[in-house]
Design goal:
single chain, mainly alpha, Tetracycline Repressor, domain 2, globular
């Protein structure tokens, strides 16, 4: 077997694992959108996905991890897009454009809406999941901001801006879900970053 064959087999396995992970996640979110996550057993989650409990645990450690999967995936996408923006671009614009690009490439709006409904129905497990992803988002944004500004990652300015930007993203998602997913999430995100941009321009005058 050649190295190319090995790489291709590895890529195929990863693709199959990714498809199964999404299948488990989607079926779980559908249940969480109808019932409280606390009331849904892993056995039911596995049955909904058409797999055994043992197989289910190969993909997720528990219900909280399922709820955290989608925000973490979106965070990775936005992070990569921000890092790809021109270095001379101002910070707010770089994040705004990256978030807009992420929404233009969005292929999981139905999953995002299911996730939002699940969060409203199951606040406690959702808060646990979101606390972890929020901390991660703050930390990741803080590191990117420090890179772009050429300052230390633990500089208070990087920390404050990281928290502000992650808060804008979280607020926009919550607003979109509260409106039933009927509006444009991309427009809501752009509006939120636009407000921050106006505040920044006003403070610069």
């Amino acid at each position: 077997m050649s190295l190319g064959d090995t790489v291709e087999m590895g890529g195929g396995w990863n693709a199959r694992r990714e498809r199964m992970s999404r299948r488990i996640e989607r079926s779980a979110l559908m249940l969480f959108a109808k019932e409280r996550a606390e009331d849904v057993t892993v056995e039911r989650l596995a049955n909904a996905a058409g797999i055994s409990v043992r197989t289910w645990f190969r993909y997720f450690a528990g219900r909280d991890e399922v709820l955290a999967a989608l925000p973490m995936r979106k965070l990775e996408l936005i992070t990569n897009l921000v890092r790809a923006r021109p270095p001379e671009e101002i910070l707010v614009e770089a994040f705004s454009e990256a978030v807009a690009a992420a929404q233009e490439a969005e292929t999981e709006l139905d999953m995002v809406l299911l996730w939002g409904i699940a969060v409203h129905r199951s606040p406690e497990p959702a808060l646990r999941a979101m606390a972890q992803s929020a901390l991660t988002m703050n930390g990741v944004f803080q590191a990117i901001i420090a890179e772009r500004l050429g300052i230390d990652e633990f500089d208070p300015k990087a920390g404050a801006l990281g928290a502000a930007f992650s808060g804008l993203v979280a607020y926009s998602y919550q607003r979109w879900v509260a409106e039933g997913g009927t509006g444009s999430l991309a427009d809501m995100l752009a509006e939120s970053f636009g407000v921050l941009s106006e505040l920044h321009e006003g403070s610069s005058r």
